[in-house]
Write a structure and sequence with these properties.
The complex is a heterodimer of chains A (115) and B (117).
Chain A (H helix, E strand, L loop, with lengths): L2 E3 L4 E5 L4 E3 L2 E3 L4 E8 L5 E7 L5 E3 L5 E5 L4 E6 L8 E9 L8 E2 L3 E6 L1
Chain B lengths: L4 E3 L2 E4 L5 E6 L6 E8 L3 E9 L14 E5 L5 E5 L8 E8 L11 E2 L3 E5 L1
Parallel strand pairs in B: 2-10
Antiparallel strand pairs in B: 1-3, 3-7, 4-5, 4-8, 6-7, 8-9, 8-10
Classes of the chains: A mainly beta (115), B mainly beta (117).
């Protein structure tokens, strides 16, 4: 069975500092990996995904994530945090082969950017 | 174009009553998902529809939960004999599947906030 772990319930970072939101996964074979963001009182939005190719994936709002196969990780990063980045972030995984495979989401990490 | 829409946006019901939640996916999206988001529980997969294939119901928590998708478009999630623990935000998402090596991006609706008293 596939799974996603987001080990931190909450991450606090000062505005202007770099941020990292951690994600590790377990899946059979190669993964498709996703990050979604949920701003307060708004729906979930796609942020970025890793399918194949370059391990460093760039997404919306200046976010990026690095796929590390040996560590089975897909941490979300941003060089300089903004207060407006404060939101709930979800990592997700699915297997890339075998036809349809459902997507499994992590429990989410609340990011709080402090002015 | 229009995104995924859900109705109602909020629903308050009494324990034991049945509720129906509706999802209108993005036109042309063949895949449709239902999730439940409870405080501190993250996103819980409920059910998945893909075209004319049999739905993946593996996430439905009990036989009180059921869902259907008519004409490959609109979906209704029904909860019978609601319990207080059913209180949550129910999210619907749609995507174009398969996308082969491109994977699939899910587009989420705003959710229905269900409160069972």
């Amino acid at each position: 069975a596939q799974s996603v772990a987001q080990p931190e319930d909450q991450v606090n970072v000062a505005e202007g500092n770099p941020l990292t939101v951690k994600c590790t996964y377990s899946v059979s074979g190669n993964p498709y990996l996703f990050w979604y963001v949920q701003y307060p009182n708004r729906g979930l939005q796609f942020l970025l995904k890793y399918i194949t190719g370059d391990n460093l994936v760039k997404g919306s709002y200046g976010f990026e994530a690095e796929f590390n196969k040996s560590q089975t990780s897909f941490h979300l990063k941003k060089p300089s945090a903004l207060v407006s980045d404060s939101a709930l972030y979800f990592c997700a995984v699915r297997a890339s082969s075998g036809g349809y495979q459902k997507v499994t989401f992590g429990i989410g990490t609340k990011l709080q950017v402090i002015p | 174009g229009a995104g995924v829409s859900q109705s109602p946006s909020n629903k308050v019901t009494e324990k034991g009553k049945d509720v129906e939640l509706r999802c209108d996916p993005i036109s042309g999206h063949t895949a449709l998902y239902w999730y439940r988001q409870s405080l501190g529980q993250g996103l819980e997969f409920l059910i998945y529809f893909q075209g004319n294939s049999a739905p993946d119901k593996s996430g439905l928590p009990s036989d009180r939960f059921s869902a259907e998708r008519t004409g490959g478009s609109v979906s209704t999630l029904t909860i019978q004999r609601t319990q207080q623990e059913d209180s949550a935000v129910y999210l619907c998402a749609s995507s174009v599947f398969p996308q082969g090596a491109r994977g699939e991006t899910q587009y989420f609706g705003p959710g229905t906030r269900l409160l069972v008293l």
